[in-house]
Automatic annotation (TrEMBL):
Residues 168-178 have a biased composition (Basic and acidic residues). Residues 140-299 are annotated as: Disordered. Residues 1-22 form the signal peptide. It comes from Hymenobacter gummosus. The keyword Isomerase does not apply. This is DUF4974 domain-containing protein. Residues 56-107 form the Secretin/TonB short N-terminal domain.
Amino acid sequence: MRNRICLAAAVLCALAGEPAAAQGRTSSVLDCRVTVVFNQAPLESVLRTLKRQYGIRISYSNTALNLRQPVTLNAQNQPLRQVLGEVLEGKNIGYELVGDQLVLHPAPPKAAPAAKPAPAAAPAATTTTVSKAVIDKAPDAAPAAAATPAPRPAAPAETTRPAAPEKTPVRPKTDKAPAQKTSAKPASSAPAASAKGRTATGGKAPGASSAPAGKATKAAKPAGKAGQAAESAPEPAVKVPDNTPANDPGATASAAPAPGPDAATQTPPAAATPPPAAPADSVASAAAPAVEPPAEEPARAYTKAAQISFLGPLGSNGLRSGQTVNHVSINVLGGYAAGVEGFEAAGLFNVDRDTVAGVQLAGLANVVGRNLDGFQAAGLANVLGGSGTGWQAAGLLNVATRPVAGAQTAGLFNFVGPRKRTAVLTASVDPASGAETTRYEAGPEQAGGKPAVQAAGLFNVSLASMRGGQVAGLFNVTKETRGVQAAGLFNVAGTVRGVQVAGLVNFADSVQGVSLAPFNFVVHGYHRLELTHSETWPVTASLKLGGSAAFYTFLTAAYDGFGSGPRRWAAGYGAGTDMWSRRRLSLSLDLATMQVNEEQRGLTKELNLHNQLRLLLGLTPFKPSSHIRLVAGPTVSLLVTRRFDTTEGRVYSNLSQGRKLWLDEGNATTKVLGWYGYSVGLRF
């Protein structure tokens, strides 16, 4: 017997300690920061948004709660506790925290302030006989004590029998003064209930007055000034609880010994004062409506100083491996745990379903369900289900579904997912049909954006903003870059605030910096078409593209063959900058190089390169916002040729014919010629 008593005491102590631990683990649920915007959105849509956007587990009953109540809220980085208080305010809904899960339940409404009653003598003690019928209409004889009727909480429907009409005037008996006569109107027009032990509200069935106290409720006491109400004020209504036997609807609730036969006849009150509502985040008391238990209990978490395992549950934690947070974890082949706060190493892999704070090493792979705060290294891959702060290093790849503040280095590629975005739910109602339409819109991106670096042998992909840099052998892709983006082939970015360097081409939406590549395509960038005439080429066309006027590149082509002279044409590439710009004036400097083809048939295969430096002054002749600008300025040409002219019998180019040369150098195989010229034209 003694052993049984000791065992029972030990079990009770263990169960008593668990709620405190669970409260410490789950207190962070109500403290998490939430950013949401709702405009007349149904409550059910609001709850679904909190579930989906922030992973909050919420349970509720669709039948017991009114989920179509509109919600208008604008919360920016506020605790979930405060947001829930504003969302559920005035909706007769409360909640309690069960583990890390929020359980919503009906809450009694707040009572309206009662009218101040007229001074009168205290009412006499009475004994009230209550039938199971629910009386909906109050007498007209108590206007002084009338209060706003409180809505009854939703409950399962039950069949009730209305009370018989009351025609006898009420004469409550008092000890100090004779009671004032009050006439009561009929409580209901329905027929009176007839069965064993059933009477009208004013009567009492034989034997009904001796009902057990546990099966009847006490009459509500008047609170505050209501206790000094006049004798004509009715007593508060008494509701028979659900555990009253169904075959004893005439059970009574005794407030005091009956002073006389007249005390058995009472009229129903106008309203009952409900109990005060519990705080929003408090645990429901015994008087709160019953709430269905959640479908899934949250997993308990344990903490161990150290553990060692061979593979998964084959270790010191056993079957509790997935529920244990370890400070030191050594896995021979592979391990599985709830999290790590310290150090973890494995020969093959580590799997942690929650958070790793510290150092994690694996021969093949590391998999973390939520967040990383520290260093993670693997021979093949690191996979992170949330955000991270620190360094991910892998032989092949790093993958994180949320941004990593720190560094990612991989032999092949790095991937980072987008930041969490707030969901703005808008609701509209058609006045004609009454149909409600809801729509989710992407809200602002959550705050964040600490410096980060991605370096990979092949490519980097970031669906979030990068503050730092991306370096890859082939290409980089990011939503926004603040820093340097360098790739051997191409770069793709939404907004560039810094420098883009690529071996071939840069793509961007807008650039607040410089894009350096042979080709730069920027949607909201610098796009110009220039048509000019010079002393060398009658027609020259240049297509200028860049992130901004500070630096651009262009493709250029020229043609000469309109007259009787020999036909020639050229094509090439150039770069330039707008050194100075005002509303109507600008000054640009361009450098172009073109390969000149002087053969009448075929192409010139020898080197025949025309290099030209242009200093062009631009003028807008019309209004400043016009897209047409006149350009003109001096040029400096430098021709490098190895073309052998059979007619001349030497290295020669027709391009320099008739020019006043300031440079004429070379030998039998190469000639370098220089001259001054001009360029004039239009820029669109």
